[in-house]
Write a structure and sequence with these properties.
With about 290 residues, this protein is an alpha/beta fold. Helices cover about 30% and strands about 20% of the residues. The chain has a domain of about 200 residues: 3-Layer(aba) Sandwich (Rossmann fold), CATH 3.40.50. The longest helix has 15 residues.
Length: about 290
């Protein structure tokens, strides 16, 4: 019997799947899970994806229709008792809250500290990227007046880095955030390497090698209509958002792209991430080691 809600396997017979854990911080659990699962499928490797939740969610999550789904999920305690090969932490709709005011930040800090030894690599997406940067390096995010929304084309800083293999010099990736970090903010942060950045929205991708953290400030996992749905949501909320850049065909909000044209770049990123991480050693709890050989 499966322990984890929606734990799907993409494993052909006879292949050992990669064990990937998703700490799902989004209120819309089903959608976020589907998007992350779709991102992992792009790599074409066998995997099993299990998702977890925090014990102390934000108010927005408690009010979301998917809260009954979240209640069935194992928590961070179960995550840290498991033995995933890789960890993904996604964004969280916490607005402009300070990190110390986010209800689950102590839990997340514990997961980050645990992941340094027990996970081959952690992929942090959007808000999770700035949270990891703040936790490990004390870097504070900057807040923009207007939301960065659309498909941006960050420039690769180091084309020879393992994560940038087969990535074009400027690659498309969806962006949806108010916060940003510029390369100048990280210039003197020893141990953090900027892999790509955009002159408008700041750092797109970075790595903290010592702490085994990949920092993706953008959304390679987005589906073709995700930005359109977010735009419509913001309009309905009376926020008067700008049109997402480089996204709607002929600048018509009724014409979202039929296919995610950033998918090839997303495939390169996730393939490179999984390939690189498989060579990183991890510490396993003795009980887990025994269970694997018994």
């Amino acid at each position: 019997m499966r322990r984890h809600f929606l734990s799907l396997s993409s494993s052909p017979l006879g292949a050992a799947p990669l064990r990937v854990a998703l700490l799902n911080l989004m209120p819309a659990k089903r959608t976020a899970y589907r998007q992350i699962h779709g991102l992992l499928e792009l790599a074409g490797q066998p995997f099993e994806l299990s998702q977890y939740r925090v014990c102390q969610p934000e108010e927005a999550e408690l009010q979301h229709p998917d809260w009954h789904v979240a209640q069935a999920l194992p928590t961070t305690r179960a995550l840290m008792a498991s033995a995933p090969d890789f960890l993904i932490i996604n964004g969280a709709p916490v607005g402009q809250k300070r990190f110390e005011d986010v209800s689950f930040m102590p839990e997340l800090a514990a997961v980050y500290d645990w992941s340094r030894l027990h996970v081959r690599s952690t992929l942090n997406i959007c808000w999770a990227a700035v949270a990891a940067l703040h936790h490990f390096r004390g870097v504070t995010r900057q807040l923009a007046v207007h939301k960065f929304s659309g498909v941006y084309y960050p420039q690769v800083s180091d084309p020879h880095d393992a994560l940038m293999v087969q990535m074009p010099a400027h690659y498309p990736v969806p962006v949806s955030r108010y916060s940003f970090v510029t390369p100048d903010h990280l210039h003197d942060v020893r141990g953090v390497q900027v892999l790509s950045s955009d002159v408008h929205s700041g750092v797109a991708l970075a790595r903290d090698r010592a702490n085994r953290q990949i920092l993706s400030f953008n959304h390679p996992e987005y589906e073709a209509d995700t930005l359109a749905r977010e735009y419509q949501r913001d309009c309905a909320a009376g926020r008067h958002p700008d049109l997402p850049v480089n996204y709607f065909m002929q600048h018509d909000p009724r014409q979202a792209p039929a296919q995610p044209f950033w998918q090839q770049a997303a495939r390169s990123l996730v393939t490179n991430w999984l390939a690189e991480g498989q060579h990183v050693p991890v510490m396993r709890p003795r009980a887990v080691l025994l269970s694997r050989v018994s």
